Structure formats: C-alpha cells, structure tokens
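hey can u check if this looks right to u? its 214 residues, i copy pasted from the old doc so theres a chance i mangled smth
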Amino acid sequence: MDRGARLDCLLVDDHAMFVEALALLVSIRHPEVALETAGHLAGALRRLACPPLPALVLLDLNLPDSRGTGTLAAVREAAPRARVIVLSADDRPETVVAALEAGAAGFIPKSGDAAMLGAALRQVLAGGVFVPPGALAHAPSAAPATPELTARQQDVFRCLVAGLSNKLIARELALSDSTVKTHVQAIYDKLGVASRAQAVLLAARMGWLDDPAA
C-alpha cells in the first residue's frame, strides 16, 4: 500500500464502540486512509451511489436492515470495483467460506488485532485475498478430484494462495507480469474458478493451504 496516496474507505458497521475504536486505529496506523462510516446498509448504498467511490469497503454482514451474505451482494452490486473485506464476530469456517463465495476479497474476525488489519489491507489492496491463518483449516469439504498443475503453476498457485498480487508473484518467481497472468488464467481454468477468492476457497477444501503442491 502506497502511504503517499489517499485511499477512500467505507466502514459499514452498527456497533458504535467498535466503529470508534477501528476509526482511531486506522487514523493512527494508516493515515493515508480516508475513512467514512455508515451504520446500516441503506446508508452505505446512498454513499456508494455518489462518486468518488471508495476503493475499499470494510463490511459487517449483520446490520439493522440487512443480514448475511445478502448484505455483501448488495454492496458488490452497488460498487463492483470496490474491494470488500468482511468484518465479523462470527469467524466459523462456514461463515468465512460463505463470504468468499459471495465475492469478499478478505475476512477479518472482530477478535483480530491491529497487525491483522494491516496485513489484510496490504494484501487486499495489492490484489490478493486475505484469510486469517487457520480460518479455513476445517472448511466444509466438497471438492472435486485434485487437478494436475505443472511445477511452475504450483509455484504460482502457492504465491496466489498466500495473497500475492501478480506483480509480487512475478518478483518472487523472477517471471514477467504477462507470464504470471498466463499461469494464473491456466490455473483458474484447471480449477474451474473465476477469482482469487474462489481459488483460495478451493485450496482450503482440497487441503492445499498447508501444501498447495499436493
């Protein structure tokens, strides 16, 4: 994350104490983030109807006027280009899975600390997907047979699951950006997924998060 660039962010949560604490943390740790808040879905949608649109939305799924993944679906429809990180007190694997399946680019349990928030912001804004360590260790399993990836695709996939953007993968593996993009698309095709979040979810279901070359 470039600390010299302003980042517009919308925090959507109805718990006043949590909002105040998180806003204070963001102002201290991430002064480049211009944080706005909304306490319900209707207010969030009104904000998302007015440019400039935030690049990032921090979203509690359970609001006074909306609950569950429908909240995420409404926000993504209103701002399809925004990256959405779900904030939730419910960090059960099935909740994380549902958020990723609905298009979230990250998931932060409300029990998480400042370091986790910083890691999530960096990873998601770099184009990756953030899932807390171990959050999907016992994810519901309904995976197809393991597809075969080439050795280089396994390297790229390991980096992708770790949350690295294409540019960072290219740097890590000494490849060109275009070569990484080709590998990523080939991996998506073999896995039958269309996004990094879906790839991370499938990796969890296949037990690849600890050994993605399996």
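The beta strands are 7-12, 33-38, 56-60, 83-88, 106-109.
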